[in-house]
Structure prediction request, 726 residues.
Amino acid sequence: MSIGFTGRIARASATRPWRTVGIWVVALAASVYAASLLGSALTQEDRLLTPTESEQVQTLVDQYRSTNAGTATETVIVTSDSARFGDASFTATLDQVVGAMGNVDGVVAVSAPTLAQPFPVSPSGYTALVTVEVDQRTGEAQTTLGTAINDAAASVQHEGFRVIPFGNASVGVLFDALAEKTLVQGEAIGVGIAVIILAIVFGALVAAGVPIVLGLVSITVAVGLTAVVGQAFELSFFIVNMITMMGLALSIDYTLIVVQRFREERSKGRDVLDAITVAGSTATRAVVFSGLTVIIALSGLLLVPSTLMRSLGGGAILVAFASVLAALTLLPALLRLLGDRINKGRIPTAHPGREPKRWAAIARTVIRRPWIAAGLGIAILLTLASPILGMRLAFSGLDALPADNPVRVAQDILVKDFGWGRSGTTIAIENAAGSGAAIAALAATIEADPGFAETTIDDRGAVVFVDTKDVYDSSDPRSEEAIVRLHDEIVPAALAGTGATASLGGDNWSAHEFTRIILDSTPGVMALVLGASFILLMIGFRSIVIPATGIVLNLLSTGAAYGLLVAVFQYGWGAGILGLPQVDGIAPWIPLFLFAVLFGLSMDYHVFLLSRIKESYDSQGDTRLAVEQGLSRTGALITGAALIMVAVFTGFAMGDLAEFAQMGFGLGAAVIIDATLVRTILVPALMTLLGKANWYLPKWLSWLPALSFEGRTERTREAELEPALV
Prediction:
C-alpha cells in the first residue's frame, strides 16, 4: 500500500540525509552567487505596465523640453542658521559644494548662485540652491551616482551649515537605506522573538533552532532566484523585504507543524525513520497543500500591471515555493541526522507527548455553547471592520517621514524658503495651433483654483506645456479633489471646441492613475483568489461547505484588519502609543496586497486545523469529538506560529517608511485575529453547529479525486507502513 507521495519523498530524503543536505548546500552556494547580480536586477521606481497619461506627458517633456538629452537634475540645498548669502563663509561653502559635486563621476555640470546672479537664493538669504546636472541612470548605476552625491555633500565641513542633496538619485539611496534598516530590524526582531516562542512551544532549544535554519535557507534560495528572474523582468527593490518577511513567517510556520508531528510520532514509540515517514505523509502533506493555497492567493498580485505589485507577489511566491521544498526534502534529512537530539536543551514548558489539556478545555467550552461563541466572534469581527467605511486611498508623501529625516528636512526647506509646491503638475497640450487664447484662459483658471499656484505657460511650438505647483501634499484629501477637478472639469472646459488635446502628468496625477488601476484590477484578483481557493479546498476536503465557510471567515478577518488599519493610521486611534505615523490615507496598494497575502496565510491555519479535524473525523465519525481533538492538537502550534508571524511583521511596522508600517501592522493584526478569534472560536463553533453538513458534497461532484491531508486512520496508517518499511 502507498504511504503518499509526500511520505515517500520525506523517507527518500531521510534515507540518504547527507546527500540531501549536500544538494541543498550546492543550491545555497549557487543562490549566494546569483545574489551578487541583485543590484542590477532591482529598480527603485514603481512603474505602471500599462499606457497612462503621465507616461505620455513625460515622453513629451523628454522630447521637447530636455536641454541636454539623457540628463537629470539634482538640487543641493545649502542652508545656515546665522550666515547669509554674500557672507565670506557662505561663499566659501558654496565654492566647496561646487568643487565636491564637480568631482563626482556622472556629473555633467554644476551651477551655484553668485553675487552677479543671486538666484536661487531664499528671500531671507539663509538658504541657496546648487543645481547639479547628472547623467540619466537607472538601477545600480543610479544607486552608485546617488551614493557619490550624498558622500560629496557630506564631505563639505563648514560649521553652522547644512548641505542636503535632493533629487531622484540621492533621495533614492536614502530610501534604500531606510528599506534596508527596516529589513534588518524586521529580521532581528522576528528571529529573536521567534526563537523564544519556538523554545516555549517545543520545550527544547535544538527543536527551536531547526525552523530558523529552514527559514534562512528558504530566504537565501528565494533571493538567488529573484536575482535570476530580475535579469529578464523589471523588479522593485521592495521584493527583498517581501522575501525576508514572508520567508521567515512561512518557513517557521511549515517547519513548526512538521517537527511537532515528528516528535509526537517518536513519543508513540516509532523509530526515527518511521516517524519521519508518518510526519511526511501527514503534516508535510498539509504543508504542501497549504503552500499551494498561498501561491495561488499571491498569484493574484501578478494580474496587477505594476512593477511594485508584481514584484511583491513574485517574491512571496518564490519564497513560498522554497519554503515548501525545504520542508519537503531538507527538513526530513535534518530530522534523520538529529534524531532524538532534537529534544536537547529541554525547557520544562512543553512535551511532545503531553496531553494538551488547556486547548482541550478551550475546545470543549466553545463546543458546549457554539451559538454564543459564533455570535460573539462574528460581532467582534464586524465591530473591528466598521472603520473600513471611512477608508481613503492615498500615498503618504514625505510628510510621513520623521521630522529629522534628511529628505523631509530638504522638502520642508524648499517649501518654506522657496515656495516650492510639494509636487508639480504639467498639462501637455498637443495640436495647440490657434488655441493661444484658450490656453491663456486655462492657465488663469488653474491659477485661480485653490489647489494650484505659480502657473506658467511654456510654448514649444508643437506642444504647449502648462506647469503649476500643487498646493496640498499628496496625502491631503484636497489634493485628490483638486487634481480630479483639473482633469475632469477645468482642462476639458477650457479646450472645448479648439481641437487641442491635453494630457495630465505629475506626481499627484500619477498617484491617482495608480489608484485607479489598482481598483480596476481588484475584481479580477479577488475572483482568482476566491475561486481558486474554493476549488482547491473543495477538492482537498471533498466538501462545498468547508471552502464556503472558510472563505467567509477569511473575508471577515481581512475586513477586521482593514478596519484596524484605518482606525490606527487614518484616524490616529492609538497611533502615538504604538509609535506609528498618522497619515491621511492608506497607501493604494496596501488593501489589495493585504487581501492576497492574508488569504494565503489564513488558509495556512485553516488547512492545519481542518486536516487534524478531518483525520479524527475519518477515524471516529464524530464531528464534535473531531473538533475537540483537532483544536487541542493544533491550537498551541497555530497560536505559536501566529505570534512568530506577528513578531516578524511588527519589526517591519516599526520602520520609518509609512507604507511599510501600514503593511506590517495590517499583516500582524490580521494574523493574530485569524489565529485566535477565527481559528480558536469561530471555526470550532461553526463546525459544531453544522455537524455532518460540514462534509456535504453534491452527488454530481462525486467524481472529484479523494485526497487525504493528514493521512487516514491510525489503524490504516499502521497497515500501510508495515509493508513499506520492510
Remarks:
- Residues 211 and 252 are 5 Å apart (CA to CA).
- The radius of gyration is 30 Å.
- Confidence is low (pLDDT under 50) at residues 710-726.
